[in-house]
């Protein structure tokens, strides 16, 4: 039998003891677990960034994986602790919109508010539910404890909205929704949407004060230091600099406008 998998996504960083403590709790509950880090470098308290990263990673894991995600500005407050059961996975974390994008892609079976304290650590800190509440629940899930055992079934939970591109005559108006560690600018314009819009017509992408003609096949399809557009691995239009940092070059940030226009015929 294969070892069960628990993934971790947080904004805790790796300097302090937080992540190691969570892993220790999981492994105490089930020493056979395989604990995999998605990332611990989500910008502090940036729920939307955590949601984006989780949504682009979770589906590459085997079915039955427990995804534990904690980006939790309201830890210790009134927000609910959740267990979400979908057709393929389990998701454990705070009810603050962190799972919004995942739940657009997964078929939800059941959602529970975690209330059964016997599955928590004996003492639950008001500032570290990741260790004291979510980690032991994740560990017990891998032992086969049934989801209803953890709490009360609920039928509503918090979601956060993500901006969608606006289609207008001859142009698409979008924005930067994520900036990765390379400084690549990931927009909310999907490659499929772009293809339907342009219909083999020449087009340009405008961001900041720059105009970029068309898209390339990959980073390699440019000279060093050149600004390029391409469809990235997440399926969205991406603006990058070959062996450089597009964010620094363009001096833009999340939320910056991106516009695609069909080139006028001369």
Question: How would you describe this protein?
Answer:
This protein is of the alpha+beta class. 20% of the residues lie in helices and 31% in strands. It contains six helices and 15 strands. It has helices at residues 18-29, 47-55, 100-105, 129-142, 191-198, 246-250, and strands at 5-10, 34-39, 66-70, 81-86, 90-94, 108-114, 151-153, 166-168, 171-179, 185-190, 203-207, 210-213, 227-231, 236-241, 257-262. Strands 8, 9, 10, 11, 12, 13, 14 and 15 form an eight-stranded antiparallel sheet that branches. Strands 2-1-3-5-4-6-7 form a seven-stranded mixed sheet, sandwiched between helices. Helix 1 runs parallel beside helix 4. It is elongated and about 70 Å long. The chain starts with a strand and ends with a strand. The mean pLDDT is 95.
Helices and strands in order, then pairings?
Blueprint: E1 5-10, H1 18-29, E2 34-39, H2 47-55, E3 66-70, E4 81-86, E5 90-94, H3 100-105, E6 108-114, H4 129-142, E7 151-153, E8 166-168, E9 171-179, E10 185-190, H5 191-198, E11 203-207, E12 210-213, E13 227-231, E14 236-241, H6 246-250, E15 257-262
Parallel strand pairs: 1-2, 1-3, 3-5
Antiparallel strand pairs: 4-5, 4-6, 6-7, 8-9, 9-10, 9-15, 10-14, 11-12, 11-15, 13-14
């Amino acid at each position: 039998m294969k070892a069960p998998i628990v993934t971790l996504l947080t904004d805790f960083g790796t300097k302090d003891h937080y992540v190691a403590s969570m892993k220790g709790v999981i492994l105490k509950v089930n020493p056979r677990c395989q604990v995999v880090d998605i990332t611990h470098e989500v910008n502090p308290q940036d729920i939307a960034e955590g949601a984006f990263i989780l949504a682009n990673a979770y589906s590459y894991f085997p079915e039955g994986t427990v995804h534990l995600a904690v980006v939790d500005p309201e830890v210790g407050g009134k927000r609910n602790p959740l267990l979400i059961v979908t057709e393929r996975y389990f998701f454990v974390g705070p009810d603050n919109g962190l799972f919004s994008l995942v739940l657009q892609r997964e078929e939800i079976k059941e959602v529970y508010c975690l209330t059964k304290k016997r599955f928590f650590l004996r003492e639950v800190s008001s500032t570290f539910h990741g260790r004291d509440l979510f980690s032991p629940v994740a560990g017990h899930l891998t032992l086969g404890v049934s989801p209803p055992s953890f709490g009360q079934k609920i039928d509503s939970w918090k979601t956060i909205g993500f901006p969608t591109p606006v289609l207008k005559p001859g142009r698409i108006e979008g924005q930067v929704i994520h900036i990765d560690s390379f400084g690549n600018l990931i927009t909310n314009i999907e490659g499929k949407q772009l293809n339907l819009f342009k219909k083999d017509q020449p087009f340009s992408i405008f961001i900041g004060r720059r105009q970029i003609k068309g898209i390339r096949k990959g980073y390699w399809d440019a000279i060093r230091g050149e600004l390029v557009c391409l469809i990235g691995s997440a399926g969205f239009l991406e603006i990058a600099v070959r062996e450089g940092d597009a964010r620094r070059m363009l001096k833009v940030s999340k939320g910056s406008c991106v516009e695609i226009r069909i080139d006028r015929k001369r």
